[in-house]
Amino acid sequence: MFIWLLGLILLAGAPDPPLGVGVVVPHQSLDHPLYFFDRPHDSAWEQHVPMDSLTFQEGPYHIVMDHVPSGFAPLLQKLDYQILFLQAKTLTSAGWIEVILNQETGEVAWVRHRDITFSTWEDFLLGVFAVEILDPASNRLVANPGNHAADVWSLAAERQAFRPLAIQGNWMRVAPMEDGQVDKDARRAWIRWRDEDRLLIQYALLS
Amino acid sequence: MSRISIFSLLLVIGIAFFGSASAVLLKPNTRAIVDDDEILGVGIVRPRIQTGARLYFYNRPQDFDRLADMATPVDSLVFGEGRHHVPINYAPPWFLPEYMALDYDALLLRAVTVSRNWIEVVVNTSSPRPRFTPHTFWVARSRVELSFWPEFLLHVSSVEMLDVSATPLRQEPSDNAGVLPFPAQSLLRPLAIQGYWMQVATIDDKAPVGWLR
Description:
Chain A contains one helix and 17 strands.
């Protein structure tokens, strides 16, 4: 584990529901609730009644959630760092995104793309502080992206934290980290970051 | 891990995408096998097409966190000034992008690898590629617009399956879902994307007809 990450760490594992398409960040606004709909609607969004909403209010130190849908259990929540992520399951051409309201049950709702910020998994993961391989035995560190690439033997098994550098399809180029810093002398390697339905890594958002 | 079958799409990009009244064809080499990630890449890059603009090509950055402004380019693409559209004034001899129709303001490069500051793009799509012809170079991410595959595919006019038998139309986005008959019309409109699956409708109907890989 990232024993060098003190206090601030947010370590998230592979989400239980299918991976979907990315991550949604609600706009944390006191004036604009995030509305959840039961399905995407064709037109005239305002004419449709949302099934629930997420509202925010001023807290003593930061914005806090006021009303949340029953059973609301998002992908990541740490509002003192303004962190609130929902997993995006489906993206539509009509400007709707299906989000997972409860990571345990897989309960979903639809939000309007204009009400949130959407990141693909690629962009989201390139912005995290560090990643850790879930199963190092099956997900080897290799010299090039591809199942038949040579192992990077110089990276010892005790190296558990890596800085994401680049993504190519299902592969991520990583730099080994030591005590929270990129080891500039260590060789870079590639790991698989996803298969069809799951993340093969866990990630730390903060240092 | 369940192996991904062929994700083969022939993209037809039409009015909505390029603001043109005639559909233009994106070459069928968009065909790729997902397991062969270096072919599929991560999406499509559009350089900024402006008079006088330059798109610099770089070798693979030694430091991915370094900004492109601090690196030395190996070559560039230079846009000029034309009467009706922005032409290319200079392009490297090896430049053969994924798709180019400058009279439609369209120049698409396939993005192979993405990092925070850099994108590796295919600069020569010929196959077989002549000897000593480069395949990819890197560009500054800040100088282009990147659309990851889901975002790009949701905004094309239509898609067509290359191999219907290998990728049947299904009721749900799952290999275990029931198989549906393919509509007579081969051009399909993307409605939604969920993981490796795309929900489609026929071109002239809003109702979804099923899910495709």
